[in-house]
């Protein structure tokens, strides 16, 4: 099959497909460790010539399939407890749905301004807080309360803006839930999966999905997620803590200059 026939069948050129896969692999790797891969994958889609709505929709498909891959990995490692997860999943689903619906009525200019400040604050927390370790700390609030209050708020953010949502889940679980770092990474990936999945369903219903782009990004995301998840499980806080700090600072700079 030559390039023209490929483009006629798939709808985009093979060079664009390769570009999307490579970009999504990098995003998936970052996502699986500390979140924030959307600040890589969305610009990659925009550079490939897709509209903002198409880019966000494809990113949701990518994030959903990457979240499935990451969840499958962590379930096999017996890191996730269903009894704990159930207390938080409903909040992430409701929040993700609500956020995706209100994006049509409320602009996200405020979040574009506030995001760099929040990310820099998270970087300082992860860099200097003694509670960030592979040993669980003291929980400030019960998981059920966290799942009914903070988690839905992050889900709303994920639904209508998105980049860095995985990092916000991670910080909430460590700082408020008292989880060890490796455990918090696993749960944050699953929660990110649920808020992404409901948002994806709404985008599909609205007819915003470009399937070829979404599937190409999803392939790269799954590759990156498996690589990153393996490193998290093997290295724990030694890998995650510095990467979270670097990623937060990098995302803050990226969002300022976007």
UniProtKB/TrEMBL annotation:
The keyword Transmembrane helix applies. This is Probable membrane transporter protein. The chain crosses the membrane at residues 12-30, 36-58, 79-103, 109-128, 166-186. It comes from Pseudomonas prosekii. It is found in: Cell membrane. The keyword Plastid does not apply. GO terms for cellular component: plasma membrane. It comes from the Bacteria. It is a multi-pass membrane protein. Keywords: Cell membrane, Membrane, Transmembrane, Transmembrane helix, Transport. Belongs to the 4-toluene sulfonate uptake permease (TSUP) (TC 2.A.102) family. InterPro entries: TM_pro_TauE-like, TSUP.
